Amino acid sequence: MTASHVSGLPASLHPPILRHLALYIVVAKILNVTPLDSKQSLQQPSLTISGNLGKDSMLVQLLLLSSILLTCVSNGNAGVTSSFIRNEWPSVDIPLDNEVFAVPKGYNAPQQVHITQGDYDGRAVIISWVTADEPGSNQVRVGLSEGKYDFVAEGTVHNYTFYNYKSGYIHQCLVGDLQYDTKYYYAIGDGDSSRKFWFKTPPEIDPDASYKFGIIGDLGQTFNSLSTLKHCMQTSAQTILFVGDLSYADRYDNHDVGVRWDSWGRFVEPSAAYQPWIWSAGNHEIEYFPHMGEVIPFRNYLHRYPTPYPASKSSSPLWYAVRRASAHIIVLSSYSPFVKYTPQWRWLEEELKRVDREKTPWLIVLMHAPIYNSNNAHFMEGESMRVVFESWFCQYKVDVIFAGHVHAYERSYRISNIRPDSSNPVPDKSAPVYITVGDGGNQEGLANRFRDPQPDYSAFREASYGHSTLEIKNRTHAIYHWNRNDEGKRVPTDSFVLHNQYWGNNRRRRKLKKNHLHSVVATLQVGENLDLLSMGM
Amino acid sequence: MTASHVSGLPASLHPPILRHLALYIVVAKILNVTPLDSKQSLQQPSLTISGNLGKDSMLVQLLLLSSILLTCVSNGNAGVTSSFIRNEWPSVDIPLDNEVFAVPKGYNAPQQVHITQGDYDGRAVIISWVTADEPGSNQVRVGLSEGKYDFVAEGTVHNYTFYNYKSGYIHQCLVGDLQYDTKYYYAIGDGDSSRKFWFKTPPEIDPDASYKFGIIGDLGQTFNSLSTLKHCMQTSAQTILFVGDLSYADRYDNHDVGVRWDSWGRFVEPSAAYQPWIWSAGNHEIEYFPHMGEVIPFRNYLHRYPTPYPASKSSSPLWYAVRRASAHIIVLSSYSPFVKYTPQWRWLEEELKRVDREKTPWLIVLMHAPIYNSNNAHFMEGESMRVVFESWFCQYKVDVIFAGHVHAYERSYRISNIRPDSSNPVPDKSAPVYITVGDGGNQEGLANRFRDPQPDYSAFREASYGHSTLEIKNRTHAIYHWNRNDEGKRVPTDSFVLHNQYWGNNRRRRKLKKNHLHSVVATLQVGENLDLLSMGM
């Protein structure tokens, strides 16, 4: 597979610099920005897409420019292996007495506060917290302004033991019947020890609802993890899609396993108490410890991180789906049964039928072990799931699949390996883009040995820490960035416009109602030359 | 891959008739039988293997002759697709009022009696039975002669509900500290309703211990199932290796699911109360029924069919190992997690290290979904497990892998697909023989559409009902038959000598102690010409 196979453009027109310039033009047009340099040889029409997308345009210009300049240093092959070398913090966990793990003041004060979506469509949240000294109240007080709580939701409390560790009192409370697109304030805990937070519900399910996701994987609790978390909080991402491997507490033994689950819960609270984290489980959640008599998979994780699985008719908290704004997000479990006839397989078969791209144009899948990945670490470990699910991913035109597991960043072209007469991946317009973001910064360090030569399916790869953002603009376009942790700064490094796999299709576009016609024409014409190009992103 | 690639013999010497004649000579020599026609062109030495194997020699002659004659009608390609057409019973379950499902007479009489190995090495059995009316006694009375019970073992009882079905009282009793190679009589139940059975323990773990296994898969409860069961009971197989899909009760709804688990328990009792059945689970054991609110996999199966999994340090009754006579038998679960990092993967990694071919030369693996299978039914469904475990199967030189799932018989050559530079199976002396015996006779009928042309890896295939036997003779040789159900008769159809993958290796043979030398030389010389040939069996 060469670049020209992927893009449909002559190879001579296809080095990374041109791809990024072309992208820049598309983004600029979507955002109604004047391009810095609209390369006329690409013969872009001068139509612009109307809409209220002008804000942040200067920032986008800068980001894209930096992206272009950064990519200039890469080689001219189809795929890019970034040669960027960055300073990093040592791959050791932050000491327990560091302030990032500080227990909140006050007797029995709620700690490890985190929220996740609580229903199928985004009108509910599950709020979780831990009290250390006694069970205390299970109530969440909720209101529309700070300090004024109009209603109360009652949750549950439980605790558990893991080897010789005894957990705190874990509270979980479903708060439902919320209004869309509304900021809510909530308080938990008793008396002087009570604590206050807020969250914002997503807009109502709508094909053109804009929404910004952050994507983090393999986070851990090192100083690199802290950079990732802080950088992600700077991006104004409204919800975090977490692709597995949370605390790396399984790197500890006996009592300390539970201790490091607790410290991680406090570590992510500054984000997770305010923004829903959509959880998926990784191998570090399995915690199969025969020497400790702990052999039931996912025990600590399942006790601590509830998911709204019944809302999507799943039978397990490990695989489920939520809809949020214009996105349908499917969470798969790499380490649960997934072959034909198993509950996860049967559930996914039904859930994919429930996806309605007219309502939620963006179909996003999360899993831990990547299906396509050209790092030596964990190479081909996603193959078992690939042979089972890849044909569905193409059939249902999944837009993008985020995975973790490999401690480096990588992005694929749109490729598939589902032809019975071949065993190599080939360009496939119906295939998802596969993105590996296992670079959250945990104590295991970076996976810096990529396979050489870079396989044809690999578009961009770099062994740095970071996270991604996916900013859905409307039913047709979303802007994606991978943000490297660079000397304490967040540097958007791999950026592209994601064309929707359903609404980006010409046939669908022609079916659009009249009131969408103006933007449709613009999208169509802007997209004509770049459609195949964006395949490769 | 052609026949000559596999055997190392010129293709002209390799049609099925020659292969079977050569086999016949080997078997005749092992059994100290004069061959009917020892084709001198194969230059077999006239050494014979001594031992007490002369019995049944006439039967073996007849079986092998029939095998040769049957194979003559097949084509001359590397693999054989049998064109045999047989009459079969309709693929419907036997009515519940048939005598094969009869409830034993007497109030609360024990029913659905079955035994399985209870420890790692064969000195214990787990005896299970059901009482319908009340819990009754949990005791098993055991003795060395009929009616004279020297000791008593105390078991447990439980019951469960499944949707609107309520089970009987399920008793499970571990009887341990048994002597090897000993017939034991046992009685269960109270007063007039008590029932009497017997079982025979295996010989002590010994590399030359002979032992005969029957192999059954996908049995169900039709008249075809009954033929299979009866035929297997005729073979004097001492233990049944069951490769999943027991009752097909999941084809029923609501209350009848439990009812058909009960009827199947009574159906197999004439064999399973006397011979241990080594259980593995198939897809029909999953029973994921969201419409009935039953979504926990394997519930009925796990309540009814205990396995000795703690003895092999497994954390689940669905995967485990037992050692029996000269065999190490590993049971895998096709529908449980098996990818890297999962409990089954970690357990298998350790269990394979525990295999000691000096003590148990025969390494046998059971699973449900076949790894190699060229039927259109379930084609490639074993691929997910293949990519995870195949390299271990070759590294540890597994002798034979039995699977079910596909309702037809098939046998592979010794092949593997583990080379990084190729994605096709190639001949591999270290690879197991893969045998699919999903032809027990259940109500779903036969899978009679094989892929055309027959793939190079497929040695023999036939869409008939039947079962297999594996008769281990010593550390180097075992005799294998697939026995077709043919107009109510058992007809051995696919037969071969299985050379042990560890002791059949020349290097190992040279390491043998002096007292084994005579038979070693014979094996070596007999094997020289046929070693590569038997690779293909």
UniProtKB/TrEMBL annotation, chains A, B:
Q: Where is the Purple acid phosphatase N-terminal domain?
A: 110-201
Catalysed reactions, semicolon-separated: a phosphate monoester + H2O = an alcohol + phosphate
Q: Which GO terms describe its molecular function?
A: acid phosphatase activity; metal ion binding
Domain Calcineurin-like phosphoesterase: from-to ranges: 212-409
Q: Which Pfam families match?
A: Metallophos, Metallophos_C, Pur_ac_phosph_N
EC number of this enzyme = 3.1.3.2
Task: Domain (Purple acid phosphatase C-terminal): give its ranges.
Answer: 431-489
Write down the required cofactor(s): Zn(2+); Fe cation; Mn(2+); Cu(2+)
Is the keyword Signal in the record? Answer: yes
Family label: Belongs to the metallophosphoesterase superfamily. Purple acid phosphatase family.
Q: Which PANTHER family match?
A: ACID PHOSPHATASE RELATED, BIFUNCTIONAL PURPLE ACID PHOSPHATASE 26
Assembly and oligomerization = Homodimer; disulfide-linked.
Q: What is this protein called?
A: Purple acid phosphatase
Taxonomic lineage is: Eukaryota, Viridiplantae, Streptophyta, Embryophyta, Tracheophyta
Q: What gene is this protein a product of?
A: LOC105162153
